[in-house]
Specification:
alpha/beta, TIM Barrel, Lyase, Ornithine Decarboxylase, Chain A, domain 1, 2 domains, 9-stranded parallel β-sheet, 6-stranded mixed β-sheet, 22 strands
């Protein structure tokens, strides 16, 4: 209890919920397919080291990060499973990747050639995954000349193509027409490679949305991200399985103030009380990831009761109207999203109030906040800010 009392504002991470969500992936894809767990952006704000350890214990075969720096941090923490670097050589060198045994994604000819040259000079072969752009329009070799490109990459003796993958643009949409088109392009290329005697060990395309709602994309490796953290890629998919929220963000009331009707609240005077009101000050604002877009739109939970955010969210503080809570007092716990003993506030709902997506809010939660890790309701680790 001491750790909970030390910080008025904190992030709580439920490792048991994380394990539950991983099991949901396993049940959907079966025992034979490998799972590449996406832990980029500090595991979507949950803490990459702690989350990675939990997912490996649950059976994750591989982890995916955005940059080499993220991968090196995992290696320095003693994590030994394969780590895929989605941005490849960006902000890193081939020597760094080889030194830390990281697997880069290759999506340009120049990056493939740099990796090849460095590997040959070191007398090694670097495992790589080749990304194909089948319609996302982001990173990746264009799919149409993909056969020739892959053959050229395979001709680079310093490289070993371990994986081939693509990224779906709208697998979370109910209309799967474009996703089916992307899949057909990817499958067609894989088939042509096979006809030429080229078999790449790992094929992957299924992100969280496709894992939940598009099983033809499973291949032999799947890439869950947001669903591991208990968030549905789209609310329409919710009936398909049960995910548990992994993150809770909590704070406490630090001041209560009774103000008269006509009193202005916070910067810009965007909220004026219509009657005598009780306003509570919370020690969290946009510097810690509580979005300014929640000004006059958001809700928080106190004792299981929703209270409105009033006035502009400030850098380090926010204000809520607690007039309808006669028993409220300084020090009372405030739930900003997630669950506690008195209720649940969906991150999806909070994101809708902020006119954004849950991903952004998770990734925005400030590193200035402590992370408290729980398993089966018991505090097992604290990551201080």
């Amino acid at each position: 209890m001491q750790a909970e009392q030390k910080w008025s504002t904190r992030v709580e991470v439920d490792l048991s919920a994380l394990g539950h969500n991983f099991k949901q992936v396993r049940q959907l894809v079966g025992r034979k397919r490998k799972i590449l767990a996406v832990v980029k952006a500090d595991a979507y704000g949950h803490g990459a080291i702690q989350v990675s350890r939990e997912l490996i214990a649950a059976g994750a075969y591989m982890l995916a990060v955005a940059t080499a720096a993220e991968g090196i941090r995992l290696r320095q923490a003693g994590i030994e499973v394969p780590v895929l670097v989605l941005l490849g050589l960006l902000d890193s060198s081939p020597k760094q990747l080889m030194r830390h045994d990281l697997t880069p994604v290759v999506y340009t000819a120049s990056s493939a050639e740099k990796l090849d040259e460095a590997a040959r000079q070191a007398g090694k072969r670097i495992k790589v995954h080749v990304e194909l752009d089948t319609g996302m329009g982001r990173l990746g070799f264009p799919w149409k000349p993909g056969l020739e490109i892959i053959q050229r990459v395979m001709g680079l003796t310093g490289l070993e193509i371990e994986g081939l993958f693509t990224h779906f643009a709208e697998a979370d949409a109910q209309d799967k027409s474009f996703t089916k088109l992307q899949l057909s392009r990817f499958e067609g290329l894989a088939a042509r490679l096979k006809d030429r005697g080229i078999e790449i060990p790992l094929l992957h395309a299924a992100n969280s949305a496709a894992i939940i709602d598009f099983y033809p994309a499973y291949f032999n490796l799947v890439r869950p991200g947001i669903m591991l953290y208990g968030i549905m890629p789209d609310e329409a998919l919710r009936p398909k399985l049960t995910l548990k929220p992994v993150m809770r963000v909590k704070t406490k009331i630090i001041q209560l103030k009774k103000v008269p009707a006509g009193h202005s609240i916070s910067y810009g005077r965007t909220y004026i009380t219509s009657a005598e009101s009780v306003i509570a000050t919370l020690p969290i604002g946009y510097a810690a990831g509580y979005s300014r877009a929640l000004s006059n739109r958001g809700r928080a939970l106190i004792g299981g009761v929703r209270v409105p955010v009033v006035g502009r969210v400030c850098m380090d503080m926010s204000l809520v109207d607690v007039t309808h809570l006669p028993e409220v007092k300084v020090g009372d716990e405030v739930l900003l999203w997630g669950d506690n003993d008195t209720g649940f506030l969906s991150l999806g709902e909070v994101a809708a109030w902020a006119d954004t997506i849950a991903y952004e809010l998770l990734c925005s939660v400030g590193r200035s906040l402590p992370r408290l890790y729980y398993r089966q309701g018991k505090l097992v680790e604290v990551q201080a800010p």
